[in-house]
Amino acid sequence: MRNMAILQASAKDLPDSRLARLKNLAGKVIAYLTSRDGEGRAGRMALVAFIIRIVSAAIAFVSQIILARLMGEHEYGIFVFVWVLVILIGNLSCLGFHSAQIRFLPQFEAINDFERVRGLAITARVFALVSSTAVALLGFGALHLFGGYIENYYVVPLFIALFILPMVALGDTMEGTARANSWAFVALSPTYLVRPMLILLFMLGLIYAGEPQTAKTAMLASLAATYVTTLGQLFNIKSRLRRRYEKGPVRIEFADWFRVALPIFLIEGFGFLLTNSDTVVAGLFLDPTDVGIYFAASKTMALVQFVYFSVKAASAPRFSALYGAGDHLELSRFAGRTVRWSFWPALAVGLVMLAAGNLLLSMFGPGFTAGYSVLVILFFGILAKASVGPGEVLLTMAGEQKLCVKLYAAALGANVVLNVVLVPQYGINGAALAAAGAMFIEAALLHVAVRHKLSIVLFAFARPDSQRVPATGA
Prior knowledge:
Blueprint: H1 2-13, H2 16-34, H3 38-92, H4 97-110, H5 114-146, H6 152-180, H7 184-208, H8 215-245, H9 254-285, H10 288-301, H11 306-325, H12 328-355, H13 357-362, H14 372-386, H15 391-397, H16 401-454
Helix pairs in contact: 3-6, 3-7, 3-8, 3-9, 3-10, 3-11, 4-5, 4-6, 4-9, 4-11, 5-6, 6-7, 6-8, 7-8, 9-16, 10-14, 10-16, 11-12, 12-14, 14-16, 15-16
Protein backbone atom coordinates (compact mmCIF):
# COMPACT_ATOMS: atom_id res chain seq x y z
CA MET A 1 0.00 0.00 0.00
CA ARG A 2 2.82 2.34 0.81
CA ASN A 3 4.40 1.71 -2.61
CA MET A 4 1.08 2.42 -4.29
CA ALA A 5 0.78 5.67 -2.38
CA ILE A 6 4.27 6.68 -3.46
CA LEU A 7 3.44 5.94 -7.11
CA GLN A 8 0.23 7.91 -6.90
CA ALA A 9 2.05 10.81 -5.32
CA SER A 10 4.68 10.68 -8.07
CA ALA A 11 2.00 10.73 -10.73
CA LYS A 12 0.40 13.74 -9.09
CA ASP A 13 3.77 15.48 -8.96
CA LEU A 14 4.24 15.03 -12.73
CA PRO A 15 3.16 18.30 -14.35
CA ASP A 16 -0.06 18.09 -16.34
CA SER A 17 1.55 20.15 -19.09
CA ARG A 18 4.24 17.51 -19.58
CA LEU A 19 1.67 14.72 -19.81
CA ALA A 20 -0.32 16.79 -22.27
CA ARG A 21 2.75 17.38 -24.40
CA LEU A 22 3.57 13.66 -24.43
CA LYS A 23 0.01 12.77 -25.45
CA ASN A 24 0.02 15.47 -28.11
CA LEU A 25 3.36 14.26 -29.47
CA ALA A 26 2.18 10.64 -29.60
CA GLY A 27 -0.97 11.70 -31.41
CA LYS A 28 1.00 13.68 -33.97
CA VAL A 29 3.36 10.76 -34.62
CA ILE A 30 0.48 8.31 -35.12
CA ALA A 31 -1.40 10.73 -37.37
CA TYR A 32 1.76 11.45 -39.36
CA LEU A 33 2.63 7.79 -39.95
CA THR A 34 -0.95 6.82 -40.88
CA SER A 35 -1.65 9.75 -43.20
CA ARG A 36 -2.06 9.06 -46.89
CA ASP A 37 -0.34 12.16 -48.25
CA GLY A 38 3.15 12.28 -49.71
CA GLU A 39 4.87 13.12 -46.45
CA GLY A 40 3.06 10.33 -44.67
CA ARG A 41 4.35 7.87 -47.25
CA ALA A 42 7.83 9.32 -46.83
CA GLY A 43 7.59 8.92 -43.07
CA ARG A 44 6.43 5.32 -43.34
CA MET A 45 9.16 4.57 -45.85
CA ALA A 46 11.74 6.13 -43.54
CA LEU A 47 10.45 4.01 -40.66
CA VAL A 48 10.50 0.80 -42.71
CA ALA A 49 13.94 1.64 -44.08
CA PHE A 50 15.16 2.39 -40.57
CA ILE A 51 13.88 -0.94 -39.24
CA ILE A 52 15.36 -2.84 -42.17
CA ARG A 53 18.69 -1.14 -41.65
CA ILE A 54 18.66 -2.08 -37.97
CA VAL A 55 17.90 -5.72 -38.75
CA SER A 56 20.28 -5.80 -41.71
CA ALA A 57 23.03 -4.20 -39.65
CA ALA A 58 22.63 -6.96 -37.08
CA ILE A 59 22.60 -9.65 -39.78
CA ALA A 60 25.61 -8.18 -41.58
CA PHE A 61 27.50 -7.73 -38.33
CA VAL A 62 26.92 -11.30 -37.19
CA SER A 63 27.65 -12.75 -40.63
CA GLN A 64 30.89 -10.76 -40.93
CA ILE A 65 31.95 -11.97 -37.49
CA ILE A 66 31.34 -15.58 -38.51
CA LEU A 67 33.13 -15.12 -41.84
CA ALA A 68 36.10 -13.46 -40.15
CA ARG A 69 36.38 -16.26 -37.61
CA LEU A 70 36.01 -18.91 -40.31
CA MET A 71 38.65 -17.45 -42.62
CA GLY A 72 41.03 -15.64 -40.30
CA GLU A 73 42.33 -12.10 -40.71
CA HIS A 74 44.34 -12.65 -43.92
CA GLU A 75 41.70 -14.49 -46.01
CA TYR A 76 38.96 -12.26 -44.61
CA GLY A 77 40.94 -9.21 -45.74
CA ILE A 78 41.19 -10.64 -49.27
CA PHE A 79 37.47 -11.35 -49.39
CA VAL A 80 36.30 -7.94 -48.14
CA PHE A 81 38.62 -6.07 -50.52
CA VAL A 82 37.30 -7.96 -53.56
CA TRP A 83 33.70 -7.78 -52.35
CA VAL A 84 33.90 -4.01 -51.92
CA LEU A 85 35.28 -3.74 -55.45
CA VAL A 86 32.46 -5.81 -56.98
CA ILE A 87 29.75 -3.86 -55.13
CA LEU A 88 31.37 -0.56 -56.07
CA ILE A 89 31.86 -1.36 -59.76
CA GLY A 90 28.48 -3.08 -60.06
CA ASN A 91 26.73 0.00 -58.71
CA LEU A 92 28.68 2.39 -60.92
CA SER A 93 28.04 0.33 -64.05
CA CYS A 94 24.34 1.32 -63.90
CA LEU A 95 25.48 4.82 -64.94
CA GLY A 96 22.83 6.44 -62.77
CA PHE A 97 19.75 4.82 -64.32
CA HIS A 98 18.87 3.01 -61.09
CA SER A 99 18.54 6.38 -59.30
CA ALA A 100 17.09 8.27 -62.27
CA GLN A 101 13.94 6.23 -61.75
CA ILE A 102 13.51 7.87 -58.34
CA ARG A 103 13.70 11.26 -60.02
CA PHE A 104 11.24 10.53 -62.84
CA LEU A 105 8.76 7.81 -61.80
CA PRO A 106 6.96 9.83 -59.08
CA GLN A 107 6.59 12.74 -61.51
CA PHE A 108 5.29 10.49 -64.31
CA GLU A 109 2.84 8.78 -61.95
CA ALA A 110 1.60 12.15 -60.64
CA ILE A 111 0.42 13.07 -64.15
CA ASN A 112 -0.75 9.52 -65.00
CA ASP A 113 1.89 9.16 -67.70
CA PHE A 114 2.07 5.37 -67.40
CA GLU A 115 3.60 4.93 -70.85
CA ARG A 116 6.80 6.59 -69.69
CA VAL A 117 6.63 4.78 -66.33
CA ARG A 118 6.72 1.43 -68.14
CA GLY A 119 9.36 2.64 -70.57
CA LEU A 120 11.71 3.89 -67.88
CA ALA A 121 11.41 0.70 -65.79
CA ILE A 122 12.23 -1.48 -68.80
CA THR A 123 15.03 0.78 -70.02
CA ALA A 124 16.72 0.86 -66.62
CA ARG A 125 16.79 -2.95 -66.36
CA VAL A 126 18.09 -3.56 -69.86
CA PHE A 127 20.67 -0.80 -69.64
CA ALA A 128 22.00 -2.09 -66.31
CA LEU A 129 22.48 -5.60 -67.68
CA VAL A 130 24.13 -4.46 -70.90
CA SER A 131 26.47 -1.92 -69.33
CA SER A 132 27.52 -4.17 -66.43
CA THR A 133 28.16 -7.09 -68.78
CA ALA A 134 30.36 -4.85 -70.91
CA VAL A 135 32.29 -3.79 -67.80
CA ALA A 136 32.71 -7.43 -66.78
CA LEU A 137 34.09 -8.32 -70.22
CA LEU A 138 36.58 -5.48 -69.95
CA GLY A 139 37.52 -6.82 -66.53
CA PHE A 140 38.19 -10.29 -67.91
CA GLY A 141 40.43 -8.75 -70.54
CA ALA A 142 42.30 -6.66 -67.98
CA LEU A 143 42.73 -9.66 -65.69
CA HIS A 144 44.14 -11.69 -68.58
CA LEU A 145 46.58 -8.97 -69.65
CA PHE A 146 47.68 -7.66 -66.26
CA GLY A 147 47.09 -10.62 -63.97
CA GLY A 148 50.82 -11.07 -63.57
CA TYR A 149 51.07 -7.72 -61.82
CA ILE A 150 48.40 -8.62 -59.24
CA GLU A 151 49.12 -10.51 -56.02
CA ASN A 152 48.33 -14.19 -56.60
CA TYR A 153 45.88 -14.40 -53.72
CA TYR A 154 43.65 -11.78 -55.39
CA VAL A 155 43.45 -13.27 -58.91
CA VAL A 156 40.90 -16.08 -58.44
CA PRO A 157 38.55 -14.05 -56.19
CA LEU A 158 38.63 -11.21 -58.74
CA PHE A 159 37.82 -13.67 -61.55
CA ILE A 160 34.76 -14.92 -59.66
CA ALA A 161 33.74 -11.35 -58.82
CA LEU A 162 33.42 -10.44 -62.50
CA PHE A 163 30.59 -12.97 -62.89
CA ILE A 164 28.74 -11.26 -60.03
CA LEU A 165 28.81 -7.76 -61.58
CA PRO A 166 25.68 -8.01 -63.80
CA MET A 167 23.52 -9.25 -60.93
CA VAL A 168 24.76 -6.52 -58.59
CA ALA A 169 23.86 -3.89 -61.20
CA LEU A 170 20.44 -5.42 -61.86
CA GLY A 171 19.76 -5.66 -58.13
CA ASP A 172 20.57 -1.97 -57.65
CA THR A 173 18.23 -1.14 -60.53
CA MET A 174 15.41 -3.17 -58.99
CA GLU A 175 15.99 -1.38 -55.70
CA GLY A 176 15.66 1.96 -57.50
CA THR A 177 12.38 0.89 -59.11
CA ALA A 178 10.95 -0.18 -55.77
CA ARG A 179 12.11 2.99 -53.98
CA ALA A 180 10.55 5.14 -56.70
CA ASN A 181 7.24 3.41 -55.95
CA SER A 182 7.74 3.76 -52.16
CA TRP A 183 7.97 -0.02 -51.71
CA ALA A 184 10.52 0.25 -48.92
CA PHE A 185 10.56 -3.39 -47.80
CA VAL A 186 10.68 -4.72 -51.35
CA ALA A 187 13.45 -2.26 -52.21
CA LEU A 188 15.78 -2.88 -49.30
CA SER A 189 15.20 -6.39 -47.99
CA PRO A 190 16.82 -8.36 -50.87
CA THR A 191 20.15 -6.52 -50.69
CA TYR A 192 20.30 -5.86 -46.97
CA LEU A 193 18.51 -8.86 -45.47
CA VAL A 194 18.34 -11.78 -47.89
CA ARG A 195 21.71 -11.60 -49.63
CA PRO A 196 23.90 -11.42 -46.47
CA MET A 197 22.07 -14.39 -44.96
CA LEU A 198 22.41 -16.41 -48.16
CA ILE A 199 26.13 -15.63 -48.43
CA LEU A 200 26.66 -17.01 -44.95
CA LEU A 201 24.45 -20.06 -45.53
CA PHE A 202 26.13 -20.90 -48.84
CA MET A 203 29.55 -20.40 -47.24
CA LEU A 204 28.71 -22.81 -44.43
CA GLY A 205 27.29 -25.26 -46.96
CA LEU A 206 30.44 -25.18 -49.09
CA ILE A 207 32.65 -25.69 -46.05
CA TYR A 208 30.46 -28.61 -44.96
CA ALA A 209 30.89 -30.06 -48.47
CA GLY A 210 34.66 -29.98 -48.04
CA GLU A 211 35.70 -26.64 -49.54
CA PRO A 212 38.54 -24.77 -47.80
CA GLN A 213 37.80 -21.78 -45.55
CA THR A 214 39.26 -19.22 -47.96
CA ALA A 215 38.34 -16.03 -49.80
CA LYS A 216 37.75 -18.08 -52.95
CA THR A 217 35.06 -20.11 -51.21
CA ALA A 218 33.49 -16.94 -49.82
CA MET A 219 33.33 -15.44 -53.32
CA LEU A 220 31.67 -18.60 -54.68
CA ALA A 221 29.08 -18.31 -51.90
CA SER A 222 28.58 -14.63 -52.78
CA LEU A 223 28.12 -15.53 -56.45
CA ALA A 224 25.33 -17.99 -55.69
CA ALA A 225 23.67 -15.69 -53.14
CA THR A 226 23.68 -12.69 -55.48
CA TYR A 227 22.10 -14.58 -58.38
CA VAL A 228 19.38 -16.10 -56.21
CA THR A 229 18.57 -12.77 -54.54
CA THR A 230 18.56 -10.62 -57.67
CA LEU A 231 16.52 -12.98 -59.84
CA GLY A 232 13.95 -13.37 -57.07
CA GLN A 233 13.78 -9.59 -56.70
CA LEU A 234 13.35 -9.19 -60.47
CA PHE A 235 10.34 -11.51 -60.66
CA ASN A 236 8.74 -9.91 -57.60
CA ILE A 237 9.05 -6.33 -58.85
CA LYS A 238 7.94 -7.16 -62.40
CA SER A 239 4.81 -8.75 -60.93
CA ARG A 240 4.14 -5.70 -58.76
CA LEU A 241 4.61 -3.33 -61.69
CA ARG A 242 2.12 -5.28 -63.80
CA ARG A 243 -0.47 -5.11 -61.03
CA ARG A 244 0.07 -1.41 -60.39
CA TYR A 245 0.28 -0.07 -63.95
CA GLU A 246 -1.16 -2.97 -65.96
CA LYS A 247 0.00 -3.77 -69.46
CA GLY A 248 -0.06 -1.05 -72.05
CA PRO A 249 1.97 1.01 -74.51
CA VAL A 250 5.55 1.90 -73.69
CA ARG A 251 7.24 5.23 -74.30
CA ILE A 252 11.03 5.39 -74.17
CA GLU A 253 12.92 8.69 -74.12
CA PHE A 254 16.40 7.30 -73.66
CA ALA A 255 18.32 10.45 -74.60
CA ASP A 256 16.37 12.66 -72.18
CA TRP A 257 16.67 10.16 -69.34
CA PHE A 258 20.34 9.55 -69.97
CA ARG A 259 21.08 13.28 -69.81
CA VAL A 260 19.68 13.28 -66.28
CA ALA A 261 21.04 9.84 -65.31
CA LEU A 262 24.63 10.70 -66.20
CA PRO A 263 24.99 13.59 -63.72
CA ILE A 264 23.26 11.44 -61.09
CA PHE A 265 25.79 8.71 -61.88
CA LEU A 266 28.62 11.15 -61.33
CA ILE A 267 27.10 12.43 -58.08
CA GLU A 268 26.35 9.00 -56.63
CA GLY A 269 29.53 7.58 -58.10
CA PHE A 270 31.62 10.18 -56.34
CA GLY A 271 29.61 9.60 -53.16
CA PHE A 272 30.01 5.83 -53.41
CA LEU A 273 33.72 6.21 -54.05
CA LEU A 274 33.96 8.52 -51.05
CA THR A 275 32.32 5.84 -48.93
CA ASN A 276 34.46 2.95 -50.16
CA SER A 277 37.75 4.43 -51.33
CA ASP A 278 39.32 4.00 -47.91
CA THR A 279 38.93 0.21 -48.10
CA VAL A 280 40.08 0.16 -51.72
CA VAL A 281 43.19 2.26 -51.06
CA ALA A 282 43.92 0.22 -47.94
CA GLY A 283 43.77 -2.89 -50.11
CA LEU A 284 46.25 -1.37 -52.55
CA PHE A 285 48.79 -0.29 -49.93
CA LEU A 286 48.33 -2.58 -46.94
CA ASP A 287 48.52 -6.28 -46.19
CA PRO A 288 45.18 -8.17 -46.34
CA THR A 289 45.37 -8.65 -42.56
CA ASP A 290 45.31 -4.88 -42.01
CA VAL A 291 42.56 -4.54 -44.61
CA GLY A 292 40.45 -7.05 -42.70
CA ILE A 293 40.95 -5.20 -39.40
CA TYR A 294 40.10 -1.84 -40.98
CA PHE A 295 37.04 -3.20 -42.73
CA ALA A 296 35.72 -4.77 -39.53
CA ALA A 297 36.17 -1.48 -37.65
CA SER A 298 34.71 0.70 -40.40
CA LYS A 299 31.68 -1.53 -40.86
CA THR A 300 31.13 -1.64 -37.12
CA MET A 301 30.96 2.16 -37.02
CA ALA A 302 28.93 2.13 -40.25
CA LEU A 303 26.08 0.79 -38.15
CA VAL A 304 25.59 4.46 -37.25
CA GLN A 305 25.08 5.38 -40.89
CA PHE A 306 21.93 3.32 -41.33
CA VAL A 307 20.09 6.31 -39.82
CA TYR A 308 21.27 8.55 -42.65
CA PHE A 309 20.64 5.84 -45.22
CA SER A 310 17.07 5.36 -44.04
CA VAL A 311 16.30 9.07 -44.28
CA LYS A 312 17.95 9.29 -47.70
CA ALA A 313 15.95 6.33 -49.02
CA ALA A 314 12.66 7.86 -47.89
CA SER A 315 13.25 11.52 -48.71
CA ALA A 316 14.11 11.36 -52.42
CA PRO A 317 10.58 10.74 -53.79
CA ARG A 318 9.15 13.39 -51.43
CA PHE A 319 11.79 15.95 -52.44
CA SER A 320 11.03 15.24 -56.10
CA ALA A 321 7.27 15.57 -55.64
CA LEU A 322 7.48 18.81 -53.62
CA TYR A 323 9.91 20.43 -56.02
CA GLY A 324 7.87 19.32 -59.04
CA ALA A 325 4.72 20.76 -57.44
CA GLY A 326 6.45 24.08 -56.78
CA ASP A 327 5.71 23.91 -53.04
CA HIS A 328 8.95 25.59 -52.01
CA LEU A 329 7.95 26.45 -48.45
CA GLU A 330 6.98 22.87 -47.66
CA LEU A 331 10.17 21.70 -49.38
CA SER A 332 12.14 23.84 -46.94
CA ARG A 333 10.26 22.52 -43.95
CA PHE A 334 10.59 18.90 -45.02
CA ALA A 335 14.32 19.37 -45.65
CA GLY A 336 14.73 20.64 -42.10
CA ARG A 337 12.99 17.60 -40.71
CA THR A 338 15.22 15.22 -42.67
CA VAL A 339 18.30 16.83 -41.09
CA ARG A 340 16.97 16.26 -37.60
CA TRP A 341 15.95 12.72 -38.53
CA SER A 342 19.58 12.14 -39.56
CA PHE A 343 21.65 13.79 -36.83
CA TRP A 344 20.19 13.03 -33.41
CA PRO A 345 19.72 9.27 -33.84
CA ALA A 346 23.21 9.08 -35.38
CA LEU A 347 24.69 10.83 -32.34
CA ALA A 348 22.95 8.49 -29.91
CA VAL A 349 23.82 5.30 -31.79
CA GLY A 350 27.41 6.46 -32.30
CA LEU A 351 28.01 7.02 -28.59
CA VAL A 352 26.69 3.54 -27.85
CA MET A 353 29.00 2.07 -30.49
CA LEU A 354 32.03 3.79 -28.97
CA ALA A 355 31.16 2.53 -25.50
CA ALA A 356 30.89 -1.04 -26.77
CA GLY A 357 33.61 -0.75 -29.42
CA ASN A 358 36.28 -3.03 -27.98
CA LEU A 359 33.75 -5.72 -27.16
CA LEU A 360 32.26 -5.59 -30.65
CA LEU A 361 35.64 -5.75 -32.38
CA SER A 362 36.82 -8.64 -30.21
CA MET A 363 33.95 -10.71 -31.61
CA PHE A 364 35.73 -10.78 -34.98
CA GLY A 365 38.84 -12.20 -33.34
CA PRO A 366 41.48 -11.09 -30.83
CA GLY A 367 43.52 -9.21 -33.43
CA PHE A 368 40.64 -7.00 -34.53
CA THR A 369 40.63 -4.83 -31.39
CA ALA A 370 43.55 -2.96 -32.98
CA GLY A 371 40.89 -1.12 -34.97
CA TYR A 372 39.28 0.75 -32.05
CA SER A 373 41.01 4.01 -32.95
CA VAL A 374 39.36 3.72 -36.37
CA LEU A 375 35.95 3.74 -34.66
CA VAL A 376 36.69 6.99 -32.84
CA ILE A 377 37.98 8.79 -35.92
CA LEU A 378 35.12 7.69 -38.17
CA PHE A 379 32.50 8.67 -35.57
CA PHE A 380 33.30 12.37 -35.93
CA GLY A 381 33.21 12.16 -39.72
CA ILE A 382 29.83 10.43 -39.67
CA LEU A 383 28.43 13.10 -37.34
CA ALA A 384 29.61 15.81 -39.73
CA LYS A 385 27.82 14.11 -42.61
CA ALA A 386 24.64 13.55 -40.59
CA SER A 387 24.58 17.23 -39.54
CA VAL A 388 23.50 18.28 -43.06
CA GLY A 389 21.19 15.33 -43.76
CA PRO A 390 20.56 14.14 -47.32
CA GLY A 391 21.70 17.41 -48.89
CA GLU A 392 22.88 15.80 -52.10
CA VAL A 393 19.46 14.20 -52.58
CA LEU A 394 17.74 17.57 -52.17
CA LEU A 395 20.02 19.22 -54.72
CA THR A 396 19.60 16.37 -57.20
CA MET A 397 15.81 16.32 -56.94
CA ALA A 398 15.84 20.12 -57.38
CA GLY A 399 17.66 19.78 -60.70
CA GLU A 400 21.10 20.79 -59.45
CA GLN A 401 22.86 17.64 -60.65
CA LYS A 402 25.74 19.49 -62.27
CA LEU A 403 26.51 21.38 -59.08
CA CYS A 404 26.47 18.12 -57.12
CA VAL A 405 28.94 16.64 -59.59
CA LYS A 406 31.34 19.50 -58.95
CA LEU A 407 30.95 19.23 -55.19
CA TYR A 408 31.55 15.51 -55.13
CA ALA A 409 34.43 15.77 -57.56
CA ALA A 410 36.11 18.18 -55.15
CA ALA A 411 35.36 15.98 -52.14
CA LEU A 412 36.54 12.85 -53.93
CA GLY A 413 39.72 14.56 -55.07
CA ALA A 414 40.47 15.57 -51.50
CA ASN A 415 39.63 12.05 -50.34
CA VAL A 416 42.02 10.41 -52.79
CA VAL A 417 44.84 12.80 -51.89
CA LEU A 418 44.27 12.23 -48.17
CA ASN A 419 44.21 8.46 -48.64
CA VAL A 420 47.35 8.34 -50.74
CA VAL A 421 49.22 10.59 -48.29
CA LEU A 422 47.94 9.15 -45.00
CA VAL A 423 47.46 5.41 -45.61
CA PRO A 424 51.10 4.53 -46.41
CA GLN A 425 52.30 6.55 -43.41
CA TYR A 426 49.66 5.82 -40.75
CA GLY A 427 48.11 2.56 -41.95
CA ILE A 428 44.53 1.90 -40.93
CA ASN A 429 44.38 5.11 -38.87
CA GLY A 430 45.43 7.02 -41.98
CA ALA A 431 42.55 5.46 -43.92
CA ALA A 432 40.15 6.49 -41.15
CA LEU A 433 41.50 10.05 -41.05
CA ALA A 434 41.13 10.32 -44.82
CA ALA A 435 37.55 9.04 -44.70
CA ALA A 436 36.57 11.37 -41.85
CA GLY A 437 38.27 14.34 -43.49
CA ALA A 438 36.37 13.69 -46.71
CA MET A 439 33.09 13.56 -44.78
CA PHE A 440 33.79 16.97 -43.21
CA ILE A 441 34.59 18.45 -46.63
CA GLU A 442 31.49 16.88 -48.18
CA ALA A 443 29.23 18.21 -45.41
CA ALA A 444 30.65 21.73 -45.65
CA LEU A 445 30.27 21.85 -49.43
CA LEU A 446 26.69 20.56 -49.32
CA HIS A 447 25.72 23.04 -46.61
CA VAL A 448 27.04 25.99 -48.62
CA ALA A 449 25.53 24.76 -51.90
CA VAL A 450 22.02 24.18 -50.52
CA ARG A 451 22.06 27.52 -48.73
CA HIS A 452 23.20 29.36 -51.86
CA LYS A 453 20.92 27.65 -54.37
CA LEU A 454 17.76 27.01 -52.35
CA SER A 455 18.08 29.40 -49.38
CA ILE A 456 17.70 26.44 -47.03
CA VAL A 457 20.08 26.16 -44.08
CA LEU A 458 20.72 22.43 -43.78
CA PHE A 459 22.28 22.05 -40.35
CA ALA A 460 21.26 20.04 -37.31
CA PHE A 461 21.25 23.10 -35.02
CA ALA A 462 19.50 25.47 -37.45
CA ARG A 463 15.83 25.87 -38.28
CA PRO A 464 15.61 25.64 -42.08
CA ASP A 465 11.85 25.17 -41.91
CA SER A 466 11.49 28.81 -40.87
CA GLN A 467 12.97 30.09 -44.13
CA ARG A 468 11.17 30.68 -47.35
CA VAL A 469 12.61 29.34 -50.56
CA PRO A 470 12.64 31.67 -53.55
CA ALA A 471 10.08 30.68 -56.14
CA THR A 472 12.78 30.35 -58.76
CA GLY A 473 14.70 27.81 -56.69
CA ALA A 474 17.86 29.71 -57.57
